Amino acid sequence: TLTKSGVGGTYDSANDGWNLVGNPFASSIDWDEQDGWNRAGLDNTIYVWSDSANSGTGAYLTWNGLAGTLGDGVIAPMQGFWVKADDSATPSISMNDSVRSGGGILRKQAVVPQIRLSLSGNGMGDKAVIMFSEDAWEHKDHYDAYELNSLNSEYVSLSTVAAELAPMDIQALPAGAESVELQVLMDGSDLAGTFTLSWQLEGLEDDRRVELYDSQNQSYMSLKEVDEYVFTMNREQAGSPAATLGKAGPGVRKAKASVGARFYLVVSKVATANESQTDGPSIIELSQNYPNPFNPSTNIEFGIPSQGWVHLEVYDMLGRKVATLVDNEIMAPGYHSVRFDAAGLASGVYIYQLSTQGARLVKRMTVVK
């Protein structure tokens, strides 16, 4: 039986529920073995500290049964590992001899769509994974894995942040998400110098556009056209400071509040060559602007099924109108694109609203300068 803790009956999704368990056998065991485990009330992820990871600087490696930085679910003999209880029923874990890894031919599984990021520089490195699954949610789910603080004084850290989540080592996202914007956070003991961010894309659909935005250089690059980006940093550009729980459990990294990241990863869907739009939309549509975040301009696409008037405006978060892009124009049925220039606006989140006969659609976009 494991603990899910919590102070005063209140469960903290990031900081409570950590349990250190171990492999009791003199042989490896497999976290993905279906028959040998009895697990209840747990996230799917294991966290294993490795002194040899990241060029010998050490790091926590993760595996959630589908993806991760550990590479697979094999746990070494006598190896300790962290598991995290959720806030459901009484958490528990047990195993039998069937979990032992026999080293035979493993069952083939479909490739999990994922983006594997690697950061290296100053003789150190770290990795992070973004995966897409039909079982994942936009918010915290059992496939997400927190970015934990290094146990060594010299380290670099790479993580991603979506919505209002904590920095994640594995970021699990819904497979059908139309558009996703992630902050890419970098932290470490020495962030002054030249670094390389590289990536591998596995199993992503042809209609997925994947881009990295550098807000300092105001540049976009397609992760499908190049496989690495070399840049310089200084210590002031670090992401989040080291943080510990102050109680039993590993330290969950925290993001700096009110400080924008230098890098953003934007994953969006685009029409493929096989998706003809000659017949036009059957309903009124408003797409996520592209690129997003942006500086200074972006494209806003929308579709209308029949001829009619269209009004497209942009507002700030206080509800003040900052631009009118389409002013009650009669437009033909089909898909339309309007370019928005935010050169005179401050950094921040803005609302764009499409109004037409019988519909009013709203989406958010981010200006980063």
Provide the helix percentage.
under 10%
Pattern of helices and strands: EEEEEEEEEEEEEEEEEEEEEEEEEE
Radius of gyration, whole Å? 23 Å
As a percent range, the share of strand residues is: 35-45%
Low-pLDDT regions: 103-108, 238-247, 272-277
Outline type: globular
Mean pLDDT: 85
Main structural class: mainly beta
Strand order of the largest sheet: 11-13-10-9-15-18
Count of runs of 4 or more consecutive helical residues = 0
The largest sheet, given as strand count, sense and whether it forms a barrel, is: 6 strands, mixed
Annotation, overall tally of beta strands = 26
| Separation of the first and last Cα atoms | 50 Å
What does it look like?
- The protein has no helices and 26 strands.
- With 369 residues, the protein is an all-beta fold.
- A six-stranded mixed sheet has the order 11-13-10-9-15-18, with no helix packed on it. The chain has a five-stranded antiparallel sheet with strand order 12-14-19-16-17, with no helix packed on it.
- A hairpin with a 4-residue loop joins β16 (208-214) and β17 (219-222).
- The model is unreliable at 103-108, 238-247 and 272-277 (pLDDT under 50).
